[in-house]
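Predict the 3D structure for this chain.
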Amino acid sequence: MTTRRNFLLQSGALAASSVLLPSFTLAPYKSEKNLGIQLYTFRKEMDADPIDTLKKIASIGIKKIETARSGKGHYYGLKPKEMNNVCNDLGMKLISGHVHLDDKWQKTMDEAVESGQKYLICSTMPTKGQTVENYKSIADKFNKAGEACKKMGLNFGYHNHAYEFESDKGEVLYDVLLDNTQADLVHMELDLGWVVVGGKDPLDYFKKYPNRFPLWHLKDMNMSKKESTEFGLGGLDIAKMLQNKKASGVKHVFIEQEEYASTPLKSMKHNMAYLNTIQ
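Done. Predicted structure below.
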């Protein structure tokens, strides 16, 4: 069966989006002046040439940057302060970084202070085990990490995937994490795409836990493949999410896409143009 996404792949329609959407290459998203990007979207390009890649990202209207841990460290071979300076010179702001909560935590915090960023986001569970007990234990670790960050002028947070929305003993594990972490110490980054894949509705979380999600990953998802896709081709109602930003308490919206119809840059241009069609 030919899906819409497969049709785009086969016909090259995504590459021709400049014809369908005249503002494709030039106009940033008009209703959101400070969109960010999670650099895992450009992971190969950042490892190969971080400065040139950041220039390309800036050229499409991105204003905020969130780094991802790479084989060259948290800043792609650049010094933390150098990373910050490059972003500033390009009219962007280094806001956040995805890191691991491990035995190098103090170094990670020291680097973040040097870089000028304000958020350190744990990108994966530090211990395995889909049980209420384990998630309560992790919540305690997160609270302590949050305390350590707060003392250094940083904000600690956690980025979800889909597995956190599994249940144990009748409790949704992500809810256990939220209920057992302090809102002033653990700032949740809600990945809207993975919430939907996990079978939940982000709007329900905005209502149940208002103002708990100062950071978002805005990510459309191919629901059959359980992987990210270009905006408008997946199962996330992006327009409705953006209409409910206030309820979530979001301050920073980062676009992330891990799989692409063509290249990361073409996909991001498509995404930025798509946002202009739903304002």
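Residues 1-29 have pLDDT under 50 and may be disordered.
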